[in-house]
Amino acid sequence: MIVFVRYNLGPEVVVELQEEATVAELKEVVGQQQGVQPDLLRVLFAGRELKSTSTLQGCDLPEQSTVHIIVPSPASSSYKTLLLPEHLSQGEEENHDSLTRLDLSASRLPTTSSTLGVILERNDSEGVGATAGGGGGGAALGGDSADDRAVLQSAGAKDHSVRPRSTFFVYCKSCKLVQPGKLRVRCRSCRQATLTLSRGPSCWDDVLLQSRVHGVCHSDGCHGTEAEFYMKCASHPTSDNDHSVALDLIMTNSRDVPCIACTDVMDVVLVFECLERHVICLECFRHYCQVRLNERQFVYDPAVGYSLPCAGNIDHYMLLNVSHFYMFISLICCRGLKKLYEVSFLCVYSWLHQLSH
After folding, report:
1. pLDDT tens string 92-113
2. What are the backbone dihedrals phi and psi of residue 217, each rounded to the nearest 5 degrees, phi first?
């Protein structure tokens, strides 16, 4: 496998190893290249230091990933050791949740939702295809073109034999698709991915809001402690600056909840932020956005700018993350530049509105 290595924040160097190689073997190769004893090297990836005894695959290191390898100076090592939270023993530090195996869907689809509880109970007694909350305002939305299905190919019909592994989804501007995503972290001060976390994020607010999670930055001369999370597309290799838009309301439908509009059970769904946590498949959500746009019914909300309410409860609960509208711009572009302009204006206006508050 190929790994990109940044040694002491230098340029990326390509290192080729066997797929079953360990972190210690990676240190050996880099140590020989840099003329440094391997036991002095520290390998950092996705907010944690990798143990020498671990295999690269066991660390969830995908092909062509970028890892940071540093040689901490004695002065910086002693200073940064003092910054580590006292409650983290060595064992706890090694075993905190990895960003590569994190699942934050429970913070968007809690089991305490009354409507969700009814849906799940109905599924258990009547089967997966039962109608779910159709009377709550979600009209059936049909009529999909081949182009629509191509753009939304990552959200195909439910296949019970294969369940998607990804717990994050992004809108990738390169792919122009909703794609599985990967969560990464860097130091907010120096913007380098050399920060090790004191704890992993426990909910989406930890990822999206500032100053929620802290750690220790191992860049020489940086005393930053604040974590900054960002997302990348997991479907292809990415550069350091190739970031994607986080879609926190889109998730794998692990509970087989049917869409509120078409009642189909899809692999990937969007969960509205209403109290009932209504679930809608991506194609129906796209139709919902298209219909509301055609009827000029995007609603201005003082908190988020232009947005849409939940499809099952149109009087309340605005969609707070307007980034979810952008995943359908390529579709709308094919149907006329006027529609593209309208959606782009609404999204950009809403983003600027959020940044100014």
Report:
1. 444 445 677 788 877 776 655 4
2. -90, 130
